[in-house]
Amino acid sequence: MSYLEATNDLYKEAALTPDVGLCCTTNPIWELPGLKIPRIMQEMNYGCGSTVNARDLTNNPKMLYVGVGGGMELLQFSYFNRQKGGVIGVDVVDEMLEASRKNFIEAEAQNDWFKSEFVELKKGDALNLPVEDNSIDVAAQNCLFNIFKAEDLKKAIDEMYRVLKPHGRLVMSDPTCEQPMNDTLRNDDRLRALCLSGSLPIAEYVKALTDAGFGTIEIRARKPYRILDPKNYPTEELIYIESIEVAAIKDPMPEDGPCIFTGKAAIYYGEEPYFDDNKGHILLKNQPIAICDKTAGALADLGRDDIFISESTYHYDGGGCC
Ligand SMILES: C[S@@+](CC[C@H](N)C(=O)[O-])C[C@H]1O[C@@H](n2cnc3c(N)ncnc32)[C@H](O)[C@@H]1O
């Protein structure tokens, strides 16, 4: 059996019998006026963070969500996009599609504003999406892509890139790990399907996105996720896994490379009211400006003693350079 088949089997089980501890997020559910998330959706929250932010949902975007789980995020997105078929949900596991379909009926009963028809559920594979080219404004996946091995991950990202409109965004949450993992862990299909042994270091994860052509990357959050310890897992050392929330925007690739925002800021504290680098960045005196890592490097290379550049906070929420 291939690791993809093992993954399908695991999520078939998780669809038939909700497993509260399957994936694990510390993110609270959305608390918004008139939005009620049915308990069954919360029990089937198999994500590892949040994906789309409310600010991604302006102007009725056409949305795609791959790997539907219990449907909780689809319901949350529908809150801002109340139109028939406004959100397409794709999953390869029939039982998961069926479970989410049932959960939407429960959501209708608890939310006056919600209609199941807001979500169009489609059977399909992340590696071959049943979606037209350049048709989606906002695409999302939560805790699925980390399961894929390198070649499949590339296919999945290329597929998302294909279906997004120019300047559309792919918003994701996945586990990441900065430590090496041994081959026993890496090749354990069940641990991989459980989102425990497929994760990449952040830099490799980001490179997979920029290699596909995404010109802007935002790392929006970085949080503790899981521990693999020698008593419970085939590892001799303790392995710390985090989860990150990332947006990859289908902006054209800048000639000097992608803009990757990791939460750095620059603060000018010299004698003048502002500093202008003549490359489009104006730093007002003593006011932080969010900068991408490329701009951080260019400002640092100036060797000035009146510009402070912060470390990456891995908490970027918009604005700034580029
Ligand atoms: C870890 S769960 C995450 C579910 C949901 N995103 C959430 O946050 O609760 C992975 C989801 O991806 C689905 N899935 C697994 N392999 C897939 C594939 N190749 N293509 C599309 N969906 C897949 C599973 O059925 C499951 O719904």
UniProtKB/TrEMBL annotation:
Q: Name one GO molecular function term.
A: methyltransferase activity
- InterPro entries in alphabetical order: Methyltransf_11 (IPR013216), SAM-dependent_MTases_sf (IPR029063)
Domain Methyltransferase type: where?
64-172
Q: Does the keyword Cytoplasm apply?
A: no
Q: Does the keyword Methyltransferase apply?
A: yes
Family annotation (SUPFAM superfamilies): S-adenosyl-L-methionine-dependent methyltransferases
One Pfam family, short name: Methyltransf_11
Q: CDD domains per the record?
A: AdoMet_MTases (cd02440)
Q: Which UniProt keywords apply?
A: Methyltransferase, Transferase
Looking up Gene3D superfamilies in the UniProt record yields: Vaccinia Virus protein VP39
Some GO term, biological process aspect, for this entry: which one? methylation
Give the superkingdom in one word: Bacteria
Record PANTHER family: METHYLTRANSFERASE
Q: Which NCBIfam families match?
A: AsSugarArsM
Protein name, as recorded: Methyltransferase type 11
Q: Which organism is it from?
A: Winogradskyella haliclonae
